[in-house]
Amino acid sequence: MARGLNTSRFGRAAKLGGLAGGAAARTLGTKAANVVRDDEASAAADKRAALETADRMVTVLGTMRGAAMKIGQTLSVIDIGAFEDDEVRAAFQAKLAKLQSMAPTVEFSQMRKVIEQDLGATLDDVFSSFVEEPIAAASIGQVYRATLREDGREVAVKVQYPGIKDVVRADLKNVRLVLKVAARFSPGMNTKEVADEVIERITEELDYELEAANHRAMARAFAGHPFIVVPDVITSLCTERVIVTEFVHARRFADILDDPVEARDRFGEILFRFYVNGPYRTRLLNGDPHPGNALFLDDGRVAFLDFGFFRRQTREEVDVQRAVLQSVYAQDAQRLFELSVEQGIISGGPELVEPLMEKYRAATWWFAEDREVTLATSDISRIVIEHADMRDGFGDVQMPANQVTTLRAFSLVLGILGQLRATNNWHRIGRETVFGDAPETDLGREEAAWMQGDVTAAPVA
């Protein structure tokens, strides 16, 4: 059993129930006290109660690791429009964003048992060397560096925490308790659809054999790409709890933040092309972009990892998303309104046509405007808030679950680009997949040549 992981459904339900009850009590207590407070004091009290709830959510969800933690991570980048005060919303979101990097620590002796049980052999039988210190950790597993005995290849070995399936199953039984808290701050969220979506994605994420299949699909989609690398999967060594992939010698995200501006802009364009443009071409959506899942090679290429929280999109879903973007790019307010009503996102009459477009303009200016834009971390919260905060005057807003996953993914990408302080004409890069425009950047022309079969990439180093 993984250290610190409470696998009891009832024990974990008690924590979540306490979280929900505490949030409700704070809300009621604050409302009652506000009766005798002036407006300024009431606003300050509301702010304290909201941030106390956020702190409590981080404390509880951060120790739970499974579906509860994933929902908390999702909430950190989506709808928090219940707060009228932008400062409160940003602070609430920043607190929840801590969940992005929380991961448990498990002793290697326990992780070794998982590897040997699943591979049906000792570590010495399979690997000529195995470094016991993990090189990465996530909500359901850790990654180690090793060398294969058979052919001497360096590999990355991703291993699930022992007992994590029981932890996640306990969470899945209690997902709606987490969403009961979320609903207080995200009144436009369709909690049933979001719960169903998270349950489906998390259940898939637990199956490393399925993740290996996702990884192989991405590797096929980007085989031979001039600047995007998806390392090979060692299929014979992949099981339900273990994935073995080719090891990539590269720098991590934190190592490139002080690179020259030209290098950071180039890396930013590659990240955008993979995470944003890529799903419109491949219909393969990585639902959990994270700085730790991109590695930066010395030759300028970027390697991408981790395809557990993953969605294979239908052609119809991609076509609808592209149609929405086309209407935003073209500033076609009427078409945007029609698509939003057809998808059940908003309800209302023609009076919402222009206000809806204004809302999208505020959220999408960074790529909807045909100019160079430098993204900063201060922009990201504002962009996400504008996209999420559609309750005021837009009727019963219900964001489809597949779009919640897409918004979560793209918001995380924005966060990465903001940290990178990358500058590009995102509008022109996006038009390549939204409208099929010819590329205008060097990277775009390289990618276009590859898609036409004119390029072979260098081997992974």
Automatic annotation (TrEMBL):
It holds the Pfam family ABC1. It comes from the Bacteria. It comes from Svornostia abyssi. Belongs to the protein kinase superfamily. ADCK protein kinase family. GO terms for molecular function: kinase activity. Residues 98-339 form the ABC1 atypical kinase-like domain. Keywords: ATP-binding, Kinase, Nucleotide-binding, Transferase. Transmembrane segments: none annotated. Coiled coil: none annotated. CDD domains: ABC1_ADCK3. This is AarF/ABC1/UbiB kinase family protein.
